[in-house]
Amino acid sequence: MRRLSHEGGERELSALNQLLNSHDRFVDFVARRVNSRTAAEDIVQSAYLKSLCHSEELIEESVVPWFYRVLRNAIIDHYRAEAAAGRAAEALQAEPMMQSEPLPDERNEVCACLGGLVESLKEEYRTALQVVDIEGRSLRDLAERAGISPENAAVRVHRARAALRKKVREACGACAEHACIDCRCRLPSK
Asked: Could you give the number of structural domains in the chain?
C-alpha cells in the first residue's frame, strides 16, 4: 500500500469528495444512456470503485471530466456484456428442443438413471430442464415462471444441461458416451 503525504492525501480526498458530490449527475448521465436507473446506479458504483484503485490519477481540477471518461467506458462495457448475454440466449434458443413425450421405442433407449440424476440437480436447474427440454416451452416462459430475464433463463438452461451432462458422465462413465440400453450405472447418493 502506498503512503500519502499529508498534502497529497488532502488533494485526493478533495477530488473524491467532488466525485461523491456529483453522484446524482453521474447517475443521470448514465441512466440516459442505458435506459435503466438501477443499471445506472450499478455502473456508477463500479466506476467509483475503479476510481479508488486509480486515486493517484485524481487531480482536483480535472477529476469530474476524468470520471465522465471512466463512465463512458463503463457504459460501453455494459452494452458489450448485454450483447454477449443476448448472443448466448439466441444460441440456446437455436438448440433443438427435446420432445415433451418420447416415442415408445425411445423410452427404452433412455438411461434408467437419468430421472434420478435430474432429481439430484438443484431446484432451479430441475425446473429449467423441465420447462424448456421436457415440456418444450420457450426461454421466455421459463423467465416468466422464474422471475428472471430471458437472457438469464438461457444461461440457467445452459448451466442446467452442463450440470446434468457432468452427472451423467460421473454416474454412467462409458455408458454416457455409448448410449447404453441395459443401464447398470451408479446412481448418485443423496
From this structure: 2
